[in-house]
Recover the amino acids of this structure.
């Protein structure tokens, strides 16, 4: 990944030894860390070889630049000369060469989806792909015209999924004081956390997540509206209503002008991440190195992070935008768990471990109350439906891998009526590293269905609990069903090698893929 410093990286035993999806990072040469790269990009050196010119690149031209010392790659329509970056790429030169002289968007999405390559590679920008026209003149004209509530599909015809959910649509209507934008998702059981709405200046951006696709309404409104709006989701018919309040009681002739990707319906993996600035409200110590951060969403944002999903936090570090994923938690384990309700919760809580020599977390830790950090739309492939009929839920967490377990645990205890037992096995180095230990112990006393076991890899001599790393004997003793054939589900999260090893052991112990969820990036 682009934003991990190097130098004999990963160190033996480092939690970063294996990247997400099992990709190994390669050791980088001295002086080839991310910080070195940032310094080089700021040195004023011509990194494209084009002396600052931005050109249109044809497919034929792109194909010619397919060697290590002359390597162009297209990512989402933009072409970069990545040759100067080769030695700085933590995934190695060979990984970059897989996309040499070609469109690397898919490859990039697989491994780098959340990396802010625009910022990292901006000095390597050669130009844009010369696009072959795909829409007729009439279509273009329609796409540009002022919207009146009709649906110009032309911009997005190519994006229509051949299989999967039907293409949603939108419409709008008004009263004297309000304008309601309606999205017809054409899918039943749309939840309120599937809709993300941002109202910024005079633009409305509403994203509806429908299965693995997302539908976007993105409009510069024709008139001013108030900052506050409401979102209603009529679940059984899959209708979403966004009710905006007019600033002036005048009749609108049209809703506004389409903005980028308006009325598009594309696979979620191809949609870029959208960020809004959130204010840091509080920061409290949880352990010697882990803090609970609370950020506040802007008043004109509707966003709820679904159980088991994460967001990306973005900060500028020495002029470069650095992005890292974090899993929101509830404010505490002992407070009542509320399923996302409308109006949305305005606060997002995180438990974040600060690595003194890390790239992102020290910067995050330096933020003062009132400062801003950008928060993305949620991501992740955990499906809460997996918890629906579960009887025995087992949670295996290591270190901050505990974070996704918080909401899974609280959701299951609140909403899974079939649940008989939830057990957490929590792996840490020492007692001091255990996040929310006393809350976990209190919860176990309060709710008979819940139990917690701590396992330490570097305990003090006073520790008389379990010791070691994730292992078959530990797991087989722990994963005892409450009834012989009870429906079971296991969640696992921690350093990637821990998660990989845990999943391997679970398979060994005859758990099926359907019964396991491993949290990864
Ligand atoms: P990094 O720069 O990545 O460094 C991390 C560690 O690696 C440090 O110990 C550092 O010393 C070591 N390291 C870095 N470079 C080298 C090197 N050259 N040689 C040897 N060692 C090196 N974390 C949380 O705390 N809370 C969460 O809720 C959370 N949720 C996550 C959700 C997902 C989906 C994923 C994938 C990760 C999540 N993480 C979470 C981890 C988080 O994204 C970051 O990886 C973590 O915060 C470290 O970031 P950093 O930039 O500060 O550290
Ligand atoms: P840590 O304190 O370094 O380790 C926690 C425990 O895991 C320790 O007992 C440690 O043992 C053990 N461990 C480490 N590597 C292991 C391995 N290869 N095999 C077996 N056990 C191992 O953990 P951390 O610093 O909090 O890191 C948490 C990790 O979770 C990070 O990698 C983070 O990215 C990940 N995470 C992922 C998500 C997600 O959704 N995907 C969410 C949150 C966190 P030792 O004493 O031997 O090191």
């Amino acid at each position: 990944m682009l934003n991990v410093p190097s130098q004999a990286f990963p160190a033996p035993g480092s939690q970063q030894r294996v990247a997400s999806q099992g990709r190994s990072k390669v050791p980088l040469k001295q002086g080839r860390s991310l910080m070195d790269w940032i310094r080089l990009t700021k040195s004023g050196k011509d990194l494209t070889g084009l002396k600052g010119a931005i050109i249109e690149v044809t497919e034929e031209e792109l194909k010619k630049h397919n060697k290590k010392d002359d390597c162009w790659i297209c990512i989402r329509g933009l072409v970069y000369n990545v040759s100067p970056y080769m030695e700085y790429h933590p995934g190695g030169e060979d990984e970059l060469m897989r996309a040499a002289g070609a469109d690397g968007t898919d490859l990039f999405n697989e491994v780098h989806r959340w990396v802010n390559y625009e910022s990292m590679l901006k000095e390597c920008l050669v130009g844009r792909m010369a696009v072959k026209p795909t829409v007729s003149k009439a279509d273009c004209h329609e796409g540009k015209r002022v919207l009146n509530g009709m649906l110009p599909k032309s911009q997005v015809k190519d994006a229509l999924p051949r299989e999967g959910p039907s293409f949603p649509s939108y419409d709008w209507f008004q009263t004297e004081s309000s304008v309601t934008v309606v999205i017809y998702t054409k899918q039943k059981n749309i939840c309120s956390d599937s809709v993300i709405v941002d109202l910024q200046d005079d633009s409305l951006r509403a994203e509806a997540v429908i299965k693995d696709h997302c539908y976007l309404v993105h409009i510069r409104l024709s008139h001013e509206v108030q900052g506050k709006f409401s979102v209603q989701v009529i679940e059984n018919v899959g209708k979403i209503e966004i009710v905006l309040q007019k600033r002036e009681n005048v009749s609108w002739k049209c809703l506004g002008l389409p903005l980028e990707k308006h009325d598009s319906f594309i696979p979620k993996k191809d949609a870029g991440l959208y960020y809004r600035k959130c204010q840091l409200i509080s920061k409290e110590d949880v352990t010697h190195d882990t803090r609970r951060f609370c950020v506040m969403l802007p008043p004109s944002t509707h966003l709820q992070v679904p159980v088991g999903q994460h967001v990306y936090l973005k900060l500028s570090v020495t002029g470069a935008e650095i992005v890292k994923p974090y899993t929101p938690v509830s404010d505490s384990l002992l407070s009542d768990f509320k399923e996302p309700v409308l109006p949305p919760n305005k606060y997002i809580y995180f438990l974040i471990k600060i690595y003194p020599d890390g790239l992102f977390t020290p910067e995050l830790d330096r933020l003062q109350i009132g400062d801003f950090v950008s928060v993305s739309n949620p991501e992740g492939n955990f499906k809460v439906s997996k918890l629906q009929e579960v009887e025995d839920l087992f949670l295996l967490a290591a270190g901050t891998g505990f974070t996704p377990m918080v909401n899974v645990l609280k959701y299951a205890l609140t909403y899974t009526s079939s649940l008989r037992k939830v057990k957490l096995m929590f792996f840490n180095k020492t007692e001091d590293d255990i996040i929310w230990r006393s809350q976990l112990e209190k919860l176990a006393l309060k709710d008979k269905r819940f139990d917690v076991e701590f396992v330490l890899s570097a305990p003090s001599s006073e520790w008389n609990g379990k010791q070691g790393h994730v292992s078959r004997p530990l797991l087989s003793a722990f994963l005892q069903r409450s009834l012989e054939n009870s429906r079971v589900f296991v969640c696992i999260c921690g350093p990637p090698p821990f998660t990989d090893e845990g999943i391997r052991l679970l398979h060994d112990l005859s758990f099926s893929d359907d019964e396991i969820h491993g949290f990864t990036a």
